[in-house]
Specification:
alpha/beta; seven-stranded mixed beta sheet; about 240 residues
Length: about 240
């Protein structure tokens, strides 16, 4: 059966309160070299084209980067962050709303400043986001957030996963690192030309809701559980820093 004719199992919601997890609906993670699209295993390029079309045609496309790209914890993460910015520049009017910290933020968060993984649907509804990309989000939080988004919004979710992928996203690519993100960018540019959308690569706008950073007042303890990545251990000598 052709890919286009396969039953769509995972589609944009709202699916209602407490929908069944995708794995309960028979969705399996894709094998290496393949991807998920609407809960079915397909070729990577087929999934990339569908994801690109969603980001180019649905309202308020947004990228949600998580700690694995927001925190420069190794050279690969830094290169991946550069690739994400390159991708964002090719999507007309794309926004970036970060997910830097998974701890609950009560009693209120600013949904224009960041996405709260404990209530991701609120940020998406507030900003009227109909297509989004998750990248650099730890898998257990991505799974939780993607299911909540499918339950309460009509957002088309795309997961660019460094591991095995996510069943609850409409499109999920696996083993995604900087090179794969740049390959997705090239596919998106190709689809954009096919759709006749003219766009000069432009950086996403700065987020006016984010507080101004005063680096001279920041101490390692402001980074919570990540402080250990910044403070040398006893007897350790740090020779190079960013």
């Amino acid at each position: 059966m052709a890919t286009e004719e396969k039953e769509k199992i995972i589609v944009p919601g709202p699916a209602g309160y407490n929908p069944q997890p995708a794995m309960f609906l028979g969705v399996d993670l894709p094998p290496p070299g393949k991807a998920l699209m609407y809960g079915q295993v397909v070729d990577e390029e087929v999934a990339m084209r569908e994801a690109a079309k969603a980001m180019l045609t649905r309202r308020n496309p947004t990228i949600f980067p998580g700690p694995l790209v927001l925190w420069g914890w190794n050279a690969g993460a830094m290169e991946k962050a550069k690739a994400v910015l390159e991708l964002a520049q090719e999507i007309p009017h794309c926004r970036i709303i970060p997910m830097p910290d998974y701890r609950p933020k009560y009693p209120k968060i600013d949904p224009e400043a960041e996405i709260n993984p404990n209530h991701p649907n609120l940020t998406i509804l507030h900003n009227k986001i109909e297509a989004c990309i998750f990248v650099g989000v730890h898998c257990h939080y991505a799974n939780l957030s993607l299911r909540m988004i499918r339950a309460g919004t009509n957002c088309f979710t795309i997961a660019l996963c460094a591991e095995m992928g996510h069943e609850d996203a409409m499109v999920s690519l696996r083993d995604v690192h900087a090179d794969e993100i740049r390959r997705f960018k090239d596919v998106l540019i190709e689809v954009r030309k096919e759709l006749g959308i003219e766009w000069e690569p432009t950086p996403p706008p700065e987020n006016p809701s984010l507080p101004k950073e005063e680096f001279q007042t920041i101490s390692p303890w402001d980074f919570g559980e990540y402080a250990s990545l910044l403070i040398p251990r006893r007897g350790e000598v740090v020779e190079e820093t960013e």
